[in-house]
Design brief:
The protein has about 100 residues and is mainly beta. About 0% of the residues lie in helices and about 45% in strands. A five-stranded antiparallel sheet has the order 4-3-2-1-5, with no helix packed on it.
Length: about 100
């Protein structure tokens, strides 16, 4: 499902609203991992459809505590949902 409200060119004027905004990012549509909070920084259109350059922060166990890791990369728009008060239910990620 395509979310046209998500797509906004990064190359707009600096005062344009919603240039960088919060989304939920699903890294694996069928896997057990919960969605991560992310920030969209840029957009591109490929032959496969729209993709967003997204930065996410993931917390993981070190065995003696927790640490955080930053990931960034191009993600298909199907893996993104606009942020709300809570992550979307896993059933919402099915195509």
């Amino acid at each position: 499902m395509f979310y046209p409200a998500l797509v906004q060119s990064f190359h707009q004027a600096p005062d344009a609203p919603a240039r960088v905004f919060h989304v939920w990012v699903k890294l694996d549509l069928d896997g057990p991992r919960p969605p991560l909070p992310g920030l969209v920084l840029d957009w591109r259109q490929t032959s496969s459809g729209w993709e967003a350059w997204v930065v996410t922060v993931e917390t993981y166990s070190t065995g003696v505590g927790h640490a955080s890791m930053v990931r960034q990369g191009w993600r298909p728009v199907a893996y993104l949902r606009p942020a709300g008060s809570a992550p979307p239910d896993r059933r919402e990620w099915r195509h």
